[in-house]
Automatic annotation (TrEMBL):
It comes from the Bacteria. It comes from Sandaracinus amylolyticus. Residues 10-126, 594-712 form the Response regulatory domain. SUPFAM superfamilies: ATPase domain of HSP90 chaperone/DNA topoisomerase II/histidine kinase, CheY-like, GAF domain-like, Homodimeric domain of signal transducing histidine kinase. Residues 346-564 form the Histidine kinase domain. Residues 130-164 form a coiled coil. It catalyses: ATP + protein L-histidine = ADP + protein N-phospho-L-histidine. This is histidine kinase. One of its GO terms (molecular function) is methyltransferase activity. It is an enzyme of class 2 (transferase). Keywords: Coiled coil, Kinase, Methyltransferase, Phosphoprotein, Transferase. The keyword Hydrolase does not apply. Its EC number is 2.7.13.3.
Amino acid sequence: MPRDRGRSMRILHLEDDPRDAELVHEHLASDGLEARIVRVGDRDAFERELAGGGFDLVLSDYELPAYDGRAALDRARESAPDVPFVFVSGAIGEEIAIESLKRGATDYVLKHRLERLGPAVRRALRERENLLLRRAVERERDALHEAERRARREAERVAAENRLLADASEVLASSLDLAPTLVRALRLLVPQLADWAVIDLVREDVADEQHETQRVAWAHRDPAREQLLSSRDGWQDDPLGAAEVMRTGEARVVAGADTSAGLREQLGLHLAIVVPISLRASRLGTLVLATADERRGFVERDVALAMELALRIAVAIDNARLYAQAQSDRKRAEDANRGKDEFLATVSHELRTPLNAILGWARMLREGTIGPEKQRRAIEIIERNARVQTQLIEDLLDVSRIVSGKLRLSPAPIDPASVVEMAVEAIRPQAEARGVRIAAEVPSEIGEVLGDADRLQQVVWNLLTNAVKFTPTQGRVDVRLRALPGEVEIVVRDTGAGIPREFLPHVFDRFRQADAGKARAHGGLGLGLTIVRHIVELHGGSIVADSDGEGRGATFTVRLPASVRAGTRPQVVAVARPSLAPTLREGPRLRGVRVLVVDDEMDARELLVSAFHELEASVTIAASADEALRVVRDARPHVLVSDIGMPGEDGYSLIRKVRAIEQELGMRVPAIALTAYAAIEDRTKALSEGFDRHVAKPVEPSELAVVIAELTEPIRADLDGDHSDANESTTSRSVSSGGNDSGRSLS
């Protein structure tokens, strides 16, 4: 925190000459700086006082007997990094001064210029106070961010609970066949909310007040124990107090220690929530959610969530019983031949309700007659009533994500062998049903790749599905995984219908299939291979299709970059450019560097001219490859920055011509390809054509300046010695307002 203004400033002064020390102290006093000054003259005293702390400033001579200023500075930075350190020395060269500032000194004052001491001290103290204030603000900001993170986690928890409720409602509304529907609902809750769960319902053939129940649904995370839940053995004594819950209508949490040992040992029981299933003051049964793991407990919100689930289960039970009653009524009506039409109309209404909700809400959304809140509600209703997604729909969504750039990966180090094996096992039943043999060559020690396991499995699964679909009975599909230098290769080869040679360039296009008749016979919309290609490319890999023609099978080869060396931790590289790029002021100076900028877009040229001007470079611009080549011959630029896609000759043609005349020029011109073509193959092509660097648009000018500085480092070292003369000889011109700025030099 900033220094308490109520106490006097304390200064530690390292000076072996008492007279020099006295002179320094007098200048401080004459400048109105009141301070308690502790003077020390040797290393031991200095380090002892420094360790005691409480100083606001350190003053130090640079040359001391057996102890120099650099060692004192290093010790002060180690012990009191926030305390300003000012050298007060009789003689200190410029190189030493610069080195000292780099090592952490705040300032330096020569002893024959002590009139600078007061301002230097005030500036150092002011900078320290500002630093401490910034840190305090940063701490407050971090605390705010932590609060935001907690709020976000709470929002995510609420969203997860809402999703669980929505999924449960969808399952409960999906069928009026009660028992299997309740089992499906419990499987949503286990293991997400509990380790096991049961539903007991009051028997309808006994009086309500007796509350005699029967078990209708159960689920356990351990399949071996699930069958134990189907029996009521061990439950006769009501170990969880369900009868009390039925009587009072209030939920309760039961500890496993309070139940029978047999129940704990057989099922695993740490805690259990028992809630009533009630509707319109009628007790329908109980829902039990239990945990077996002592590390997993229940809190108040879990009880509230269980109560809400029980309410929705009650509605589903009521609907199922109403439906069963309606069916019974219908049968009686048919037998009696009375009320048939009316009853059938009621059943029709019940069956059409979900479709009516979908069509009705969709029309209202399209017409824009409802507000934002109702729009969100409409979407929820449509999702709940129409969640019948097929693989074709998922493919359409993936293509939509690809087109909009929203297909995201969750990269992590993964074992490609496991990915391939899981995909093979997933497709094997389908292949066996079609009489197609799958042979897999998957070495166990293949290394790792950095990727999204689910998406890569989708790639292999899609390729295998395609191969099986187009391979006839008694055919064969081969899968091979192998390691290449720096890559992992996955090959899927089949003996099926093959691909016409003329169609191979289009095999990964959307909605394209070689034979529309075959497409109809085999199903599908032709999206799978498009998705495969994009997923592979998002992983930085490539995929190639090959075939010897129709009836001769097809081969798909996927290559993915191998992960980092064994024993190192892979780093996930974000696709997006960092949000905090260095500013031009923070970037390197390009004083005297002659930069040739080639771009057919005037705005792009103007941006770079302005940026490089700020960096003190001498800039020449050209709007075409021909103009640029003339400038290269005449101006001999130190570096070339060129666009690739330009009318007429492109950047590749330009760099080839520049490289061809280098012997004539007597110099090699470093070149940077600055282009919107940002794919991996574009970078490879740019480097192979002769560019030294490939930089993708958009780019921060300061980042581009760093690249230029790297390429021109030897040149800049020579220019630093005579930049003054260079500045005097540089001609400054402005960009024409009409955009005809080609070939002009701007500095």
